[in-house]
Structure formats: structure tokens, C-alpha cells
Amino acid sequence: MTSQPDPERKCPGAKYTINEAVCHARRRRGYPPCQECPHSGLASEKPAVIPAAAEIGPDDRLKQLFTSDPERGSELLGKYPDLLDENLAWLIGFGAGQFFRSQIAPRVQADPSAVSLLVGRDTRPGAAVLARALIEGILAGGTHVVDAGLLDWPQLCFGVRHLLRPGSGGILISGSFEDWTYSGVHLCGNQGHYLPPDRLDDLRILAANARRESVLTRGRFIRCKSPVRVVVDVANGPIGSALPALLAGSELNLTLLNADPLASPPHGPDPANRENLEPLRAEVVRRKAALGLALDSDADRCAFVDAQGRTLPPETVCTLLIRELARREDAEIGVVADQGLALENLEKCGARVSTAEPGVIAVQQTMIDREATLGVTPEGQYLFRDNFYAPSPLIALAILTSSPAPVDGE
Question: Which end of the chain is least crowded, N or C, by CB within 10 Å?
Fold first, then answer.
């Protein structure tokens, strides 16, 4: 199969040329003009063989997959995995996210919720793998995804029209009418309409310019020089089921305590209560871990324990965070602290410290008003500007385990 249209191959009465693959597909399904076409005598020939994915680069395979055919609309069909494989699906997902985002007003393009892509798939071999790679590519570009699982085309169009915001779209992984060796990417545009074929080249260019290896994946934000052993007590909260996946790809050697959400908690959920930290202290010392982290049920409050099982006060944790953030950003760090904290050590670090009324809501609002980098409360809530001013013990963990400085408690 050639990737470019044959200059001699046209359907009777058509102005545009088509390649051999499109011609073959039309002949197979009894396309009416084929009855008068001189190429129709080739129907008995064997189907053209698509080169293996490893034999041609992703740019050439994208061009081959995006071969324009107005009769097929926005269906991109190819043999799986010879032409359409996991890597190509990721690139198309990344490009699709950027394409749909470019169609909305510039003033709202930075809003992650402004555009969503509804993704569905059929039951063919490889559809689940392709859908997963497609979704990862969309998310890597910062576009929101609604994963609908098994879905057909009418359902996808209905969902795009009635469930998503204007400007959103949908993608269905399906081989359509082709035989079972095929899969495909079907693109649904704004308001549930077919994506015009003349826009496919824009999407292909965006996909071709993406590089899968250049995008940070889960866990890669933790840059440890060597593996670090960490014990985390999740207090039977829902974060226990997600934490291994969230930290996959990092250098953390993770041990979870109380990770069964259906089990009865062995202790209270408040990490500020030192009695609740005893199992974590013991496990950190027993496993010779570098750090321990205790979370409450909804994972916004936390407490850290050092390698000797000693508790790290919020002021100490905040000091360590300031030092590492200042080293990374090479700038003064703005910090908002609950007025119930001792601020002397924070000011000694060279941070620009502001106080807030008691409570995490007051700390967050003061951070927003002053565009501060970090916020902290006596209850062990660490808020980050780059996390939309929300608390995140996992970001604090990532920073602490990436720091070259030792972590010592009281």
C-alpha cells in the first residue's frame, strides 16, 4: 500500500485521486461507481500488505492513516497493530486534545474544563489498549477526558451534544465495517457532528509534532538521586488504592499501611494525634525507611516522621519545603502561615512570610490574594500555588524526597 494517492486512480466522475487502500475498500463493499471503473477487474487480487509498524516511522504512518477520502469522513482506519498501534494512538490523542482546544476562544484555552473529549471503544482486539493510550495522550496535553468505556457512534454523538460543553468533541476506537484485523479512530466534532475531513490535516500536524517520550508521566516529578524507602499510613482512605499508580515510575520504594478501604481502622484518622502515629513510627524504624507519612481519611491533612521515628512539626516541614522550592526556583518564596505557628524559623530561611487567620480557608484566601507559593496550617495541611492553592501531602512528599538535605525530626 502506498501512502500517497495514485495519480492515475480516480473513481469515475470524481475530481480527487485515491490510493490503492481506499480503492480496495470501496470495491469490497460494492461502491456503485466501481461497476464502471477500469480498476474493478482487480477485485480478485490479494489485499495490499501494510508494512509493520517498526518498518516505517510514526510520521509516515500518520500520513498513511490520515489519507484523505471524503467518502469516509473522519474515520481513520488501519490494521492493528501493523499500522495503528499504541504509540500512534497516543500521538493522535495528544494532537486531538490540542486541536479541539485551539477551536475555542483564547481567553478560555487555559481552563482545563473548557474542552472535554468523550472517548469510547468497541469490543475488537486491541480496542482497550488503543483507548488507554489515546486517553493518556489527551491527558498529557492538558485536556479533560470522559472515559465512557464500551460505546457506539450514535451514543458518542449524543454524549458530545448533550453532556459536554460547546467546543468539545468525541473519539471512538472502532474498526467500523472493516474486518476484525482493523481498528480505527473516529472523530466527532462540536455539537455531535462529523469532523470535516478538511480539518484532519491540522490534527495530523499536531499529532506529528508531539513526542511521547518528552511528556512527564505519573511519578516522574519525584527526582531522587537514588531509591528512597518511604512508609505511608493511608488510614484506610481511598488514596490507598490510587497511590501505587500515582507514584509509578518514581524512585520511591513504597510501603503502605492500612490500605484496605473495607477494613476497620486500627487507629484514629487524625495525623495530628501522636497516638495515631505509633504504627507508622514503628514501621519506619523496622524497615529503615527514610521518611514516613500519615494521612487522614480524605488525604488533605498529614504528618511526617523521620528515619528515627520522630515527628516533624509543621514548621520544620515547611522550612524544608521552602529551602527546596527556593533552590529550584532560584527566587524568594512567598509563604502564608496560620498565625498559630511559630514563624521564626520560616523567616530565617529567607522566605517572605505572611500570616493568616486560623483555618485552612483563611490561609488559602491569603495565598490567592498574595500569589504565595506555599501555605501551611498547624494541622499539617500544605497548600501549593501550583496545585491551584489546594493542599497536597503528595506534593510535599515529592519535594521532601527530592531534596538533597537530610530530613530530621524532633
Answer: C
